[in-house]
């Protein structure tokens, strides 16, 4: 079955085993645990339908906090990544 148009990020997060972490300042955080032990944190702005990698935390070494520009995530606002209730982070 083909993925709905505009849901590429949603499909990628699902395939990568993404886990919702919570909501902070209007942005949702999703964690991906890579097979080598690296943890990747993705942020999603559901209202503006934008995303970016916020942090890469290797199994060994210090976390790499990213300041990359947000990228388009057309359609993500209708996906479960944006519609499922999550805890508010402080």
Write the SSE topology.
Blueprint lengths: L7 H8 L3 E6 L2 E7 L5 E7 L4 E8 L6 E2 L5 E2 L7 H4 L7
Antiparallel strand pairs: 1-2, 2-3, 3-4, 4-5, 4-6
Shape: globular
Order of helices and strands: HEEEEEEH
Low-confidence runs: 1-6
Number of helices: 2
What fraction of residues sit in β-strands?
35-45%
Q: Which value, in Å, is the CA radius of gyration?
A: 13 Å
What's the total number of strands? 6
Report the average pLDDT across residues.
90
Report how far apart the termini are. Answer: 39 Å
Fraction of residues in H or I helices: 10-25%
Structural class: mainly beta
Which sheet architecture does the biggest sheet show? 6 strands, antiparallel
Verbal overview:
There is one protein chain. With 90 residues, the protein is mainly beta. It is 13% helix and 36% strand. It is built from two helices and six strands. The protein has helices at 8-15, 80-83, and strands at 19-24, 27-33, 39-45, 50-57, 64-65, 71-72. Strands 1, 2, 3, 4, 5 and 6 form a six-stranded antiparallel β-sheet that branches. A hairpin with a 4-residue loop joins strand 3 and strand 4 (50-57). The radius of gyration is 13 Å and the shape is globular. The chain starts with 7 loop residues before the first helix and ends in a 7-residue tail after the last helix. The model is unreliable at 1-6 (pLDDT under 50).
């Amino acid at each position: 079955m083909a993925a709905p148009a505009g849901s590429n990020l949603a499909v990628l997060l699902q395939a990568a085993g993404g886990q919702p972490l919570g909501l902070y300042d209007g942005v949702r955080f999703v964690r991906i645990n890579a097979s080598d032990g690296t943890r990747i944190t993705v942020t999603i702005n559901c209202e503006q339908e934008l995303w970016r990698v916020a942090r890469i935390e290797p199994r060994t070494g210090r976390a790499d906090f990213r300041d990359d520009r947000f990228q388009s995530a057309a359609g993500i606002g209708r996906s479960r990544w944006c519609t499922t209730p999550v805890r508010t982070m402080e």
